[in-house]
Design a protein that fits this description.
about 60 residues, mainly beta, three-stranded antiparallel β-sheet
């Protein structure tokens, strides 16, 4: 992993029956696969967004 902070990207997750949809800051990128990594507060570690069933898309936010 090379990029640790301030990627400027967001990971967008859809909602489920019990959880509201959410956006999470992308914390880093996996160098080998190029997959976005987000912090999992329950595990206290980074996880690939592809580990989450509710992952929808990574997006760079726009500024108006």
């Amino acid at each position: 992993m090379r990029y640790f902070n301030g990627t400027g990207w967001l990971a967008i997750f859809t909602g489920t029956e019990t959880v509201i949809g959410r956006t999470v800051h992308v914390d880093a990128w996996d160098e080998g696969t190029g997959v976005a990594l987000v912090v999992d507060p329950q595990r206290g570690t980074r996880r690939p967004v592809t580990d989450y069933r509710t992952f929808l898309i990574s997006s760079r936010p726009t500024r108006w």
